[in-house]
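Please go through the sequence and fold tokens given here and tell me how the chain folds. Record follows.
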Amino acid sequence: MTIQDWGAIGEVISAVAVVVTLAYLATQIRYARLTAADASRQARATGVREMQMLTIQEPAFREAWNRAQPGSNERFEALGVSLGITPEEAGLVWHGCCAWYWLHWGQFRSMKTEADERELQNIVRSFYSVPPMSIVWAEDDFMRQILDPDFVAWVDETLAGMPAAND
């Protein structure tokens, strides 16, 4: 073989190496983008949960928030009747439930495997099938309107797939 033949082989090998490197970089960029999207989603859910916890922990803030939010008093009165508690207590429970909804939404949007989905389904079935979560989820449309429609449908499907209590 001549030196030119060896040079041609070297060029082919380096061209293949460039293609492999570009494919690897494209894959890494894709996964980095997905990871960044998950981190952003989790940060949004965390921010909302922190506000829910502030609302629960600070009575003056909660009172002002509820007065400023049209319809919240009526909603909490109706929810209180269903839960057998005062409207003020119903507001606390509602904010606590909302914190759980946002936590589960962040987990739902970050699911990657069937095992992730099964784990979250078990959590949702456990929490959302008993009061107070079951009552707030069933009776209060406020969160269902602002949460991701895919998440709401997934929760409803998950709960509909539960075995009956006498099974």
About this structure: The chain has one domain: 39-160. The chain is about 85% helix and 0% strand. Helices lie at 3-57, 59-68, 72-83, 87-109, 114-128, 133-139, 141-146, 149-160.
